[in-house]
Malonate decarboxylase holo-[acyl-carrier-protein] synthase
Amino acid sequence: MSALPESAQPAQSPLRGLERHTLVWLSEQGWQAVLRAAQPQHKAALTLWQGQDWPAVVRRFDIDAPPDEVCLGLPLPPDEDTGEKVRISLRAQTVDISRTSPAVELRAALRSAGPWREALTTLERETAHLHLRIYGSMAMQSLTGLLYLTPSSDIDILFHPRSREELHDGVALLSRHATHVPLDGEIVFPGGQAVSWKEWRMAMDNPARVIVKELHAVRLVDTASLLSTLEDR
């Protein structure tokens, strides 16, 4: 059974507040444009996605993407025989976006957590005040009902701290639970500046600049400038 995001809304301003990992549903016109541009080996998967009304995922924008386009990814389940993971890269006109939603809430995807369900239920309970979200294999499995998770899969967490206290608490909790769950993922600072939470933890122990991924760029940023975007409490 697939999990539907809690706040999918009509895309009146599709680029406003858009971040990597945002879920995007295309209109009929949008799917037709995507199918016309698709490689032959991808058309069956794209037709399935259209028929099931499943979302694509916002990825970092291509350097040559015009202002009226959004860059999307459509990750397919691992091949049953080879384990190969195919990720289809798409572009869509902003006018062809019917609605968008933030990444899936961890709480909404627990039924799709497989062998990690009990451990992730405990994590969600302890971090309820942090409103964790997920992306990657577990998110796609919850959205589509297809089999994405494998024994080697990571559980990719998205964590949007509002204050330095929440940042500290969140990293501490993720670190503790990562001893028995394959947690990975990103801290997303205001403005969509995303940093691997594991890299952030290391940078706090040994002060250094960190790699920040944004909608239009990847760059090195000092930790102090990221901390300044959060409330002091």
User: Anything to note?
Assistant: The longest helix spans residues 164-177. Confidence is low (pLDDT under 50) at residues 7-13. The chain has two domains: 22-101, 104-228.
